[in-house]
Structures are given as C-alpha cells and as structure tokens.
Design goal:
Blueprint: H1 10-32, H2 39-52, E1 57-61, E2 69-73, E3 76-84, E4 90-93, E5 99-103, E6 115-118, H3 122-126, E7 134-141, E8 146-152, E9 155-158, E10 168-172
Parallel strand pairs: 3-7, 4-8, 7-10
Antiparallel strand pairs: 1-2, 2-3, 4-5, 5-6, 8-9
Length: 182
C-alpha cells in the first residue's frame, strides 16, 4: 500500500491559499458594495434647506427601529427610512416588500447593471401602519440613477417624489421637493 502525506505536498498549500484568497476577495467585495447611508450629511442638509425656506420643523431621531427619523412640519409627520445603496444604482420596486438594487455599471448611460441584490430591512417599514397625519418616506442615499416600480408583468412607471408607492414616497437624498412646498 502506497501512502502520500498531502500536508507535505506544495500543491496542497497552493490550493488552500487560492481558496482563502477567493473567499477574502468575495467578502471585501460585498463590504464595499453594501454602503450605509450618510445619516449625518442628510440630517444637516435637510435642516439647512428647511431653515432657508423659512419652514418651521422638528427633526427627531426615531426610537422605533423600523425607521430612522421623524420630521414634523406643521401638523404633518414624516416617518423617514434611510436606505443605503451603492453609487450609480438603479432601484426596482417589484412589490411592497421586494426591492431590487442593481449596481456596478458606474455612471455609463445605457450600460447594463451587472450586479443586483435585494434591499434589506424594508419589509417592516412598508408594513408599518400609520396614522392619518403620518407619511412614510424612503430616502435613497446616495442618489439612485433611476427608480422604477413594476405595475404588472409588462408595465413599469418611473418613480418621483409625487409617485405613490404603496402609500410611501421614495426620493433621492438630494430631492427635498416633498418637504418644501412652493
């Protein structure tokens, strides 16, 4: 019987090193493409914009873990969920709780987005029951290139701040038109 000790073979160590390098590369890739929203930058910017427009407001960090902030303007309360997405992403809303984030094409117009993932933590916020004077708002950080909502299998609409997405408004972090009425 012929016995080979694989731990003394150099090929074994090369294979182990290659597998570890691939695993580390995948982990680093997912860490880099899963950003968290810039919560302080948005907080300061909305406060400045509302103050410039002479709109009395109150911005409170939420105690509810389903959303991040409560913005109170006059008698209206906005429940704000900040959703971090990769730069130059497209957001596709398939149904109430399934939001697909497509990314990886950069700022090249017309290029197909090679990567996709589903938004995490949106389900609880979308199922949140609100009072009459409350409006749920999802703010995408950084700005998405395109936001679309599927109506059915062959119809889509482009989403802006006036579009009702299952009783929620979806806006980019640089779009304050929902809060500032002219």
């Amino acid at each position: 019987m012929f016995y080979i000790n694989i731990f003394t073979e150099p090929l074994f160590y090369i294979i182990v090193f290659a597998v570890l390098a691939i695993v580390v590369g995948i982990v680093v890739f997912f860490i880099l493409t899963s950003p968290t929203p810039n919560k302080t930058g948005w907080h300061n910017e909305i406060t400045c914009k509302l103050t410039e427009a002479n709109i009395p407001h109150q911005l409170i960090k939420s105690t509810n873990n389903l959303y991040d902030y409560e913005l109170i303007i006059e008698d209206k309360k906005y429940l704000i969920k900040l959703l971090g997405i990769p730069s130059y992403s497209e957001v596709q809303i398939n149904n109430v709780t399934t939001w697909e984030i497509k990314f990886g094409a950069g700022k090249n117009p017309g290029k197909v987005q090679p990567f996709k993932r589903f938004a995490q933590g949106i389900e609880g916020f979308m199922n949140l029951v609100t009072k009459q004077n409350e409006q749920r708002v999802v703010i995408l950080s950084p700005d998405a290139k395109k936001i679309t909502k599927y109506i059915n299998e062959c119809e889509i609409v482009f989403v802006n701040s006036k579009t009702n997405v299952y009783n929620v408004r979806v806006i980019n972090e640089s779009d304050f038109s929902l809060f500032i009425k002219k």
